[in-house]
Amino acid sequence: MLDLRLIRSDPDAVREGLARRGDVDPGAVDALLALDAERRGATEAAETLRARQKEDARAIAAAQNAGEDAGAAIAAARELATEVKLRTAQAADADRRLLASLALLPNIPDPTAAPADEVIREVGEVPVLDFSPQDHLALAGARVDMERGARLSGSRFAYLRGDLVFLELALVQWTLRKLERHGFEPVVPPVLVREEALYGTGFLPDTEQQIYHLPADELYLAGTSEVALASLHAGEILAAATLPRRYAGFSPCFRREAGTAGRDTRGIFRVHQFDKVEMFSFVHPDESAAEHERLLAIEEEILTELRIPYRVVNIGVDDLGASAAKKYDCEAWLPGQGQYRELTSTSNTTDFQARRLNVRFREATGRPAVVHTLNGTAVAVGRTLIALTENGQRADGSVVLPEVLAAHGAPRRLEPLD
RNA sequence: GGAGGGGUGGCAGAGCGGCUGAAUGCGCCAGUCUUGAAAACUGGAGUGGGUUCACGCCCACCGCGGGUUCGAAUCCCGCCCCCUCCGCCA
Fold it and tell me: Which annotated residues bind L-serine (predicted)?
C-alpha cells in the first residue's frame, strides 16, 4: 500500500512513478485525492458532532447528580445521537472506500528498476558437451515419478524418490546453515494462512487465480513462505536497534498454475507443490537498497557454489507484481532445455507490504515509521534439482553432484537407472 | 468433537453505565541527591486520525466487528484467540 501522505504531498511524483508501470489507470491518483478530501470532510463533520454529544452527556450527568430534571436535555441528546450515528457512518464509509482504492494501487517502481527485462551479467561456464544433453527427467528416471504423482493428485504433481530425497535434504540443510551464518534465523512457518496475510503481502487482490483456497476453513495454501514470514511481525513496533531482522523460511509452496496449461509440462519445472528456502528481511528504510543487493549476492553465492551457470536479470517494471519496487531474477542455464530459466528471484517491496501489515520501527526518540521488507529465494528445491542434474550430467547418463552437499548427506553421484 | 474459564497500557493487575486513555505495582526515560552507583524522592512516558504557522485543541482505540443507551472498558449479539477438563489423534 502506498503512503497516503506522499500521495497528498507530492501527487506528481506518485503519478509519474506509477505511470512507468503499464497496469495503472492514469486517473487513479486524482480519484484517490478526491476520496481523501471527501473522507476528511466527513470525518471532521462527524467528530465535531461527536464532541458536542459528549459534552451534552456530561451536562446531563451533572444535572442528574444535582437532582435536576434532565428530561428535556435527554430528548435533545436523543436527536443529536441520531445525527452523530449518521455522520459517523458516512465518515466510516468514506474511509473504507478510500482504503479499498488505495489497496488496489501497486508499489511505485524504484528508479533503477529496468524499463524492460535487462540482463546484467552472466556468471559461470555454460558446459560444452560432446554429447547430446538429456533433461532432468531422463537423468532422474524413476526418482522423479510423474506418472504415479499424476495418478495420486493429477498433473503437475510428482513423487521424489530415492537418492533425490537425500539430495533435497542436503541442499536444504546446507542452505539453512549458510543463511544462519549470514544472520538469518531459520523458520518453519505455517503454510495454511488467513486471507489477511495474503492481502498484507500484496498477493490479494492481485494473484487470486494462482492461490489454493480452502473455503471450508477460510484458509489459503501459501505459494511461498514469504507470506508467513512477512506476517511474523505484523502489527508490531520494532526497536530500530533490532533491525535488520532476517529470516530463512523452509516450507512447501503451493501454486495452482491456472492459465499455464501446456506450458512447462515435462518434469518438475512447473508443479503445484515444491519445497523452498526463502530469505526475508525487515530493514530500516535507508538500508533496503543495500539489503536487496545483499540478498542477490547470497543467491549468486549459492548458485556459484553449486556450480550452476546463471545470469542475473533486472526485471522490467511491467513484470514487477503489485508489491515489488524492484526485482532481480537469477536464471540458471538448463542444458536439457538449452536456455536460461528462472531459478531464484529477489524483490525489494520497500514499505508496500510493511504498511499493509503494519510493521513499524522506532528510533530511541521520535514517532514510529514503517519498515522496509525484502524477500529472496535461497533455494527453490525442484528447480535447483533440475539445474544440478542437467549441469552435472556425463555422457553415460550419470550425474556428478557438488562436493559441498556431500557433507550434508547428499550422494556424490546419481547413477543412471535403466 | 463435548464441557467450562478468560482476553485491559512493556509486564502484572484494578476498574458501581457518567471528566477512566484508564487506579496500583514492577519495569522504562529524565531530573534531584551522590565522587560514582544503588536506594529514596520528583517528573515523564501509548497508537492512529483530524485541525493549527505554532502552542494547542478535537476524535477514535481496553482482542475484532456489530447493537442497546443521552452516555459503554463496563450491558447484549457474532467472530477471533488463549487456558482447563473429557474424547480423538501424527
Answer: 224, 255, 278, 375
Strand B contacts (Cβ < 7 A) comprise: A 5, 40, 43-44, 47-48, 50-51, 53-54, 56-58, 60-61, 64, 74, 77-78, 80-81, 84, 92, 237, 360, 362, 367-368
The DSSP call for residue A393 is: B
Q: Is the pLDDT of residue A366 over 80?
A: no
Contact A272, A257 (CB under 8 A): yes
Task: Give A51-80 pLDDT, tens digit per residue.
Answer: 999 999 988 988 888 888 878 888 889 999
Question: Thinking of the domain A4-104, which architecture would CATH place it in?
Answer: Orthogonal Bundle (1.10)
CATH 3.30.930.10 in chain A: give the residue spans: 118-414
Q: Which neighbouring-strand residues pair with A276?
A: A251, A380
Q: What is the pLDDT of residues A169-220, one digit of tens each?
A: 999 999 999 999 999 999 999 999 998 899 999 998 888 889 999 888 888 9
CATH class of the domain at A118-414: alpha beta
Which residue, A197, A272, A205, A181, is CA-closest to A229? A197
DSSP code of residue A113: S
